[in-house]
From TrEMBL:
Residues in the signal sequence: 1-24
UniProtKB keywords: Signal
A Pfam family reported for this protein in Swiss-Prot or TrEMBL: CzcE
Highest classification ranks of the organism: Bacteria, Pseudomonadati, Pseudomonadota, Betaproteobacteria, Burkholderiales
Protein name: CzcE family metal-binding protein
Amino acid sequence: MKTHINFLSAVLLACMFIPLDSRANEGGIPARSAAEAKTGREAPFGYSSNAAPDRVITIVAGKTRSIHVKRLETIRIVDGPRSVTWTFDTLGLLPISLANILPNATNVTIYVEESPMYAN
């Protein structure tokens, strides 16, 4: 019995020094490449997409204050020289600042409405 306990202790001790994932970083969390799309709780506002957009929205500086999109809609947003194609696969229907998906963007609020696909 004592041999089994010693063996189990040795195995547990060895497991502490073996990385669980070859991509593990110092915090023990697997590192992600920038190319990996975030989904679920990691992407509360949706994600960048290569898909053809359903429509294109051009932000007019000083005039555009908000835009309205539907959940699961893919939109190309153009803000001056910058643009992004974004799929609004959101966790909820809370307003989003454009700066959350396009850094240094104009002060525009994005209102996400429920998709008609979910209507009863």
